[in-house]
């Protein structure tokens, strides 16, 4: 093992949280910071062209390429489970949608932790701090921060017609999904600058690497955290770089810390390899137990999207525009000269938040609507004109798990989301499919004769619709909760409300795994907000 260097802060994972922390913590020139990333740099053109997510997901250049187990609720199907393995993490391969969630999400975090620091009002102040909004600063949005929030640079007539149909179905028009109550339909705001993807490497790390007190190491896989079994102090990390074992030490005697930002999957893997987790599971793997925390890897929550596809006539979609060489050439030229058009598209352009049934107290389902369709990710677009209306349950009650089955740091974990395992989730799935049909049957879409291609009009009974949900359901890439924060009397809480690992000193987990409950929407921005909170705690100490 090479000679170890000592740092004040060691950040593991250069994703949505890690890049922000690297910038915030290096603002104090007296503090030395190490940022370790398993992936390569983000100098890969498809990361920065918005449509390039198609070439990044399931590509070892940018993705860990995880898969779930065969899921009973999905009729025995296994899913691709993308996670970013590159500078910027998942912000380099995600859908670029800027979404905070709803006020009620944060009140549930306050209830789970007993800490008002997680209230909607306090979270909003953090969002505004790092935000550079496309409009003027106001009570909801900030100006001048690192994270650019843009309007999309294209419109599709079929999307406009879906929006009209949703309004006719009782969902009001909205121009902002980030004011705490998202009920409405409109175009998503996106994390882009002038038609290019914005990832956290570009937003936060690009400035931070100019500082002499930041060291960034890429293509380095953390094998374990070093913990003193007597004191339970986390004093450093071990990692592999170029096939060699290395160690970095943390100056915890001077207030330093190790900050684990490897995500809802990666953080679990590193904790369990380091002896932090359920003792029975660790014993089976022959790993010495440093902290018996049965919540590690449990409480997995994710948004399951039900991808309904409708054929249409008399209106163009991306399917036919992109299915000819001339069309592809024109798309390329439009992006080359204007940074607009389909190559500037986020995967989903139009959004809607709705009530699946009148008994809901706030919007509980979210739509991601696309002017295209395909059988499954990675395949060609259909040859016919169609749009996709994906709908997800924002507050699933199903809980899954993630656990290692080997101490090999490159061995994939066992990922079991446990989708549709509760009666409540199956009920909302049924309601969601019915609601989509109601929207599509509205007068605005009638001139285009929409025909349900997936799952198909033959699915009518509740039993049919549950099967249909299992057939067409897929992840929308929002795994959270696997190292949840909570009150001291919660035996499944891995972290306290300041994201410190219970029973271990000088170690925090700072990423989406800390969420006790999933937010009502896309999870990238909430992960950055979590990092902003920890930066506040550390720099004000």
Describe, in plain words, how this protein is organized in 3D.
It is a single chain. By secondary structure, the protein is α/β, with parallel strands linked by helices. It has a domain at 45-76 and 143-198 and 301-475: Glucose Oxidase, domain 3. Helix content is 26%, strand content 20%. It is built from 14 helices and 26 strands. The protein has helices at 18-25, 45-48, 53-56, 103-113, 120-130, 157-168, 200-208, 263-273, 279-284, 318-321, 325-338, 423-440, 462-472, 524-539; strands at 5-7, 9-12, 33-36, 66-67, 80-81, 131-133, 147-149, 184-187, 192-193, 196-197, 214-217, 220-227, 234-241, 244-250, 257-260, 276-277, 291-292, 304-311, 350-354, 365-370, 386-393, 401-403, 414-416, 451-454, 473-475, 507-509. Strands 8, 18, 19, 20, 21, 24 and 25 form a seven-stranded antiparallel beta sheet that branches. β9 (192-193) and β10 form a beta hairpin. α5 packs across α14. The radius of gyration is 23 Å and the shape is globular. The model has no long low-confidence stretch (mean pLDDT 95).
What is shown here, in short?
With 541 residues, the chain is α/β, with parallel strands linked by helices. Helices cover 26% and strands 20% of the residues.
Topology:
Layout: E1 5-7, E2 9-12, H1 18-25, E3 33-36, H2 45-48, H3 53-56, E4 66-67, E5 80-81, H4 103-113, H5 120-130, E6 131-133, E7 147-149, H6 157-168, E8 184-187, E9 192-193, E10 196-197, H7 200-208, E11 214-217, E12 220-227, E13 234-241, E14 244-250, E15 257-260, H8 263-273, E16 276-277, H9 279-284, E17 291-292, E18 304-311, H10 318-321, H11 325-338, E19 350-354, E20 365-370, E21 386-393, E22 401-403, E23 414-416, H12 423-440, E24 451-454, H13 462-472, E25 473-475, E26 507-509, H14 524-539
Parallel strand pairs: 1-14, 2-3, 2-15, 3-11, 6-7, 15-26, 16-17
Antiparallel strand pairs: 4-5, 8-19, 9-10, 12-13, 13-14, 18-21, 18-24, 18-25, 19-20, 20-21, 22-23
Helix pairs in contact: 1-7, 1-14, 5-14, 12-13
């Amino acid at each position: 093992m090479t000679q170890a260097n000592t740092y004040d802060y060691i950040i593991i994972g250069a994703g949505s949280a890690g890049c922000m922390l690297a910038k915030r913590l290096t603002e104090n020139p007296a503090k030395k910071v190490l940022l370790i990333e398993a992936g390569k740099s983000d100098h890969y053109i498809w990361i920065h062209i918005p449509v390039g997510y198609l070439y990044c997901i399931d590509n070892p250049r940018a993705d860990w390429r995880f898969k779930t187990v065969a899921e009973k609720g999905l009729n025995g199907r296994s899913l691709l489970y993308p996670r970013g393995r590159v500078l910027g993490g998942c912000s380099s391969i995600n859908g670029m949608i800027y979404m905070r969630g709803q006020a009620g999400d944060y009140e549930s975090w306050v209830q789970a932790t007993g800490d008002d620091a997680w209230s909607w009002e306090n979270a909003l102040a953090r969002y505004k701090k790092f935000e550079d909004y496309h409009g003027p600063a106001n009570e909801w949005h900030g100006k001048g921060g690192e994270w650019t929030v843009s309007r999309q640079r294209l419109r599709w007539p079929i999307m406009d017609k879906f929006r009209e149909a949703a309004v006719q179905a009782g969902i009001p028009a909205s121009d902002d999904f980030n004011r705490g109550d998202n009920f409405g339909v409109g175009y998503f705001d996106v994390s882009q600058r002038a038609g290019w993807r914005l990832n956290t490497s570009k937003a936060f790390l690009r400035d931070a690497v100019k500082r002499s007190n930041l060291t960034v190491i890429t293509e380095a896989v953390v094998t374990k955290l070093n913990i003193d079994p007597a004191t339970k102090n986390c004093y450093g990390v071990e990692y592999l770089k170029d096939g060699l074992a290395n160690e970095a030490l943390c100056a915890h005697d001077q207030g330093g810390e190790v900050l684990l930002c490897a995500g809802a999957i990666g953080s679990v893997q590193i904790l369990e390899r380091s002896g932090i987790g359920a003792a029975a599971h660790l014993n089976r793997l022959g790993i010495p137990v440093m902290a018996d925390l049965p919540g590690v890897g449990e409480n997995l929550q994710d948004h399951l999207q039900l991808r309904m596809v409708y054929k249409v006539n008399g209106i163009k979609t991306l399917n036919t525009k992109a299915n000819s060489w001339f069309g592809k050439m024109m798309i390329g030229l439009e992006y080359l000269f204007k940074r607009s058009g389909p190559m500037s598209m986020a995967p989903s352009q139009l959004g809607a938040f709705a009530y699946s049934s009148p008994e809901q107290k706030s919007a509980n389902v979210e739509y991601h609507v696309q002017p295209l369709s395909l059988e499954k990710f990675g395949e060609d677009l259909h040859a016919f004109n169609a749009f996709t209306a994906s709908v997800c349950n924002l507050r699933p009650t199903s809980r899954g798990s993630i656990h290692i089955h080997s101490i090999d740091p490159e061995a994939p974990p066992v990922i079991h989301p446990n989708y549709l395992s509760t009666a409540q989730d199956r009920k909302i799935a049924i309601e969601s499919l019915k609601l989509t049909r109601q929207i599509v049957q509205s007068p605005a879409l009638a001139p285009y004769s929409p025909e349900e291609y997936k799952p198909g009009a033959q699915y009518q009974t509740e039993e049919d619709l549950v099967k249909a949900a299992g057939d067409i359901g897929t992840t929308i890439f929002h795994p959270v909760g696997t190292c949840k924060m909570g009150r001291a009397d919660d035996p499944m809480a891995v972290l306290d409300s300041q994201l410190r690992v219970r029973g271990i000193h000088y170690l925090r987990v700072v990423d989406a795994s800390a969420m006790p409950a999933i937010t009502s929407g896309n999870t990238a921005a909430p992960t950055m907000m979590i990092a902003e909170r920890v930066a506040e705690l550390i720099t004000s100490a």
